[in-house]
Amino acid sequence: MICIDLNCDMGETAGNQPGSPDEALLDYVSSANIACGFHAGDAQRMQLTVHAALTKGVAIGAHPGLPDLDGFGRQEIRVTANEVYQLTTYQIGALYGFVKAAGGKLHHVKPHGALYNMAARDADLAGGLVTALYDFDPKLILYALAGSEMIKAAQGKGIAVAAEGFSDRTYQADGSLTPRNHTDSLVTDVQEAIKQSIMLTKYQQVISVTNSVIFHQVDTMCIHGDTPYAAEFAQAIHGALVQEGIMIKAPSM
To answer: pLDDT tens across 2-16, in order?
Structure first.
């Protein structure tokens, strides 16, 4: 049987803001990437989201980003490999504290936004990020863009890695994600998102914005939690994958 993880970026509102969609999303995903305060979220939201994920039996991961609250972590900032190491270690530690206090176990690390994209293409930054994960706990799984420098760095360190595909993002011909400042960066039609999810999961391929075929073997599929249609997408994609006979399950540590 084909197995795939459905992951979602979560905890990206302030703790005192009502209307977080995380509770609904947790019914359909198998792992949650929880913001650690640098690009979004705060201590209250981390605690609430950790508790909700544990209640639903969803695997918990740290979602570290650049220190960019104004730009939601999507603005590229010049950083060194050691600075990436520092900010990654700091944020993993913050979320780990809440997970441990709640009696849970930290499962994975997935960088956010600009940090994710920068480390995907820059071997030095990927090395700083992966070394932070390794030094904190080498048993943690790295969620990283399929075919990226992060994958190579993790494999070099002997860290388990889950190659990631995206249900709701478009791809460039080189396998990178379409930059967020492009009008066609997001998949906004639920049927297109379902089609892309099934293609990546069953056939290890995706069609780029230039209609070229990209071959990607993926272990986990991302649905972004900050879009207004996130819960609708999660429910529809979950249902379509199950109908295809695909098991939805977080990667084993």
So the answer is: 999 999 999 988 666
